[in-house]
Design brief:
The longest helix has 16 residues, at 78-93. The protein has helices spanning 8-15, 19-27, 36-49, 55-61, 78-93, 107-119, 135-150, 172-185, 201-215, 233-245, 265-277, 311-323; strands spanning 67-72, 97-102, 124-128, 154-158, 166-170, 191-194, 226-227, 259-262, 287-289, 306-308, 332-335, 338-340. Helix 2 (19-27) crosses helix 4, helix 5 crosses helix 12 and helix 6 packs parallel to helix 7. A six-stranded parallel beta sheet has the order 2-1-3-4-5-11, sandwiched between helices. It has three domains: 8-61, Orthogonal Bundle (434 Repressor (Amino-terminal Domain)), CATH 1.10.260.40; 67-170 and 312-335, Rossmann fold (3-Layer(aba) Sandwich), CATH 3.40.50; 172-309, Rossmann fold. It is α/β, with parallel strands linked by helices. It has twelve helices and twelve strands. The termini are far apart. The radius of gyration is 26 Å and the shape is elongated.
C-alpha cells in the first residue's frame, strides 16, 4: 500500500492556520515572524502528520540558501587548496555547503560564477586570489559583488583591497623584505628573482619587497637577473632554465648568482627541478627560496626556505568576514608572513 505524501497544505489544515502561516512557522521568513503559540501548533501538526520540510523551500523562504560560493584561481595549486580547507571547515561549522569554482585566472569565469551564485541565492561569496593591474576587470568584478551584496549576500576577499568589500590582505612586501634581509645575513649577495607574470599584483608586491629589502642593504638586482614567468611550477622550471642558459648560475656557486627567490613556492619547486635537470646542486651551487609554505614542501628535498602563511586560518578568517553583518566601510584585515629558513639556503662561508 502506497503512503501518500504529506504536504504543507495538509499541515496548515491540521493546525487550523493559513498556508502562509504554516510556511513561515516551518520554513522561516526573511521579513515576517509567527507568534510562538501559532508556531507551536504548526510544529505539533507537522509532527503528528510526519511532515518532512523541503530544505530548499526553507532556505528560499529565508531569502538565502545554505550555499557558500568560493572562487579560486587554481585548485591544483596547494596555496589555494589550503585556503579552501579553511573555508570549508568554517562553512561546515556555520551549517553551510561550499560551492567551488576554479577559474584559471579568467575574469570572465569569475563574473559568471558570481552571477550563478546570485541567481541561486547563495548565502555568501568568497573570492581568493591576487588581482591583476587590469582596472576594467577589477571594476567589473567590484560592481558584480556590490550588486550581489545589495541583495543581502555576504562577500569577502583574500588578496588586494581593490573590490570595495571586506578583505584579508597579505603583507607581501614586508615579508619579502624580511626574507631578503635574512638571506643577506646568511651570506648571500648575488641574487636573481623569478618574478611571476607581469601585471599580477601579488607577484609584483613580492618582487618589490624583496628588491627594496636588498636595496636597503646596498645590494641591487639588474634586469638581466629578473625573469617573468607563469605563477606555476612549470613557470618556475622555465624561469630557472632561462637563468641557467644565460650563464648566471654555475657549478660551485661561482657564477653571477648565488641565490634565487621565486615569488611563490610552486615556482620554487619548479626551479629546484630545473637546477637538478641542468646538473646543478641545491644548495651546493645555488640557494633557492619561495613564498607561502605550502603543505607539499614536506616532501621536498632539500627543505625549502620560504615565508610561511597561515593559509587554513586565512580561509577561516575570510569566511568569518563573509558571514558577519555588513558594515558601512569594508574591513581590511592584514596577515603577516613568517620567514622560515631551511636547508635550501644554508649559511654561506
Amino acid at each position: 500500500m502506497c503512503r501518500m505524501t504529506v504536504t504543507l497544505s495538509d499541515v496548515a489544515r491540521e493546525a487550523g492556520v493559513s498556508l502562509a502561516t504554516a510556511s513561515r512557522a516551518i520554513n522561516g521568513s526573511s521579513n515576517r515572524t509567527v507568534r510562538p503559540e501559532l508556531r507551536d501548533k504548526v510544529l505539533a501538526a507537522a509532527h503528528r502528520l510526519r511532515y518532512s520540510p523541503d530544505a530548499n523551500a526553507q532556505a528560499m523562504a529565508r531569502g538565502r540558501t545554505t550555499a557558500l560560493g568560493l572562487v579560486v584561481h587554481d585548485i591544483a595549486d596547494p596555496y589555494f587548496s589550503m585556503i579552501v580547507s579553511g573555508v570549508t571547515a568554517a562553512a561546515e561549522r556555520a551549517g553551510l555547503m561550499v560551492t567551488l569554482a576554479s577559474t584559471d585566472r579568467d575574469p570572465e569565469r569569475e563574473l559568471a560564477f558570481v552571477d550563478l551564485m546570485q541567481r541561486q541565492r547563495a548565502r555568501a561569496i568568497i573570492v581568493a586570489g591576487g588581482r591583476t593591474d587590469d582596472a576594467d576587470a577589477n571594476t567589473t568584478l567590484a560592481d558584480a559583488l556590490a550588486e550581489y551584496s545589495s541583495h543581502g549576500g555576504g562577500v569577502a576577499v583574500v588578496g588586494q583591497a581593490l573590490l570595495g568589500v571586506d578583505t584579508v590582505t597579505i603583507e607581501n612586501e614586508a615579508s619579502t623584505s624580511e626574507l631578503a634581509t635574512k638571506l643577506h645575513g646568511l651570506g648571500y649577495r648575488r641574487f636573481a628573482i623569478l618574478a611571476g607574470p607581469q601585471g599580477h599584483l601579488t607577484a609584483r608586491a613580492r618582487f618589490n619587497g624583496f628588491r627594496d629589502g636588498l636595496a636597503a642593504l646596498g645590494v641591487t638586482i639588474d634586469d638581466a637577473r629578473v625573469v617573468h614567468c607563469a605563477f606555476t611550477r612549470d613557470g618556475g622550471f622555465e624561469g630557472m632554465s632561462e637563468l641557467v642558459s644565460r650563464g648566471l648560475i654555475s657549478a660551485g656557486g661561482a657564477g653571477p648568482v648565488d641565490a634565487v627567490f621565486a615569488v611563490n613556492d610552486v615556482m620554487a619547486v619548479g626551479a629546484m627541478a630545473a637546477a637538478r635537470a641542468a646538473g646543478l646542486s641545491v644548495p651546493g651551487d645555488v640557494g633557492i627560496a619561495g613564498f607561502d609554505d605550502i603543505i607539499t614542501l614536506r616532501d621536498i628535498t632539500p627543505s625549502l626556505t620560504t615565508i610561511r602563511l597561515p593559509l587554513a586560518d586565512i580561509g577561516a578568517l575570510v569566511t568569518e568576514l563573509a558571514l558577519s553583518p555588513a558594515r558601512a566601510e569594508p574591513r581590511i584585515v592584514p596577515v603577516d608572513g613568517e620567514v622560515i629558513v631551511r636547508d635550501s639556503t644554508p649559511r654561506r662561508g
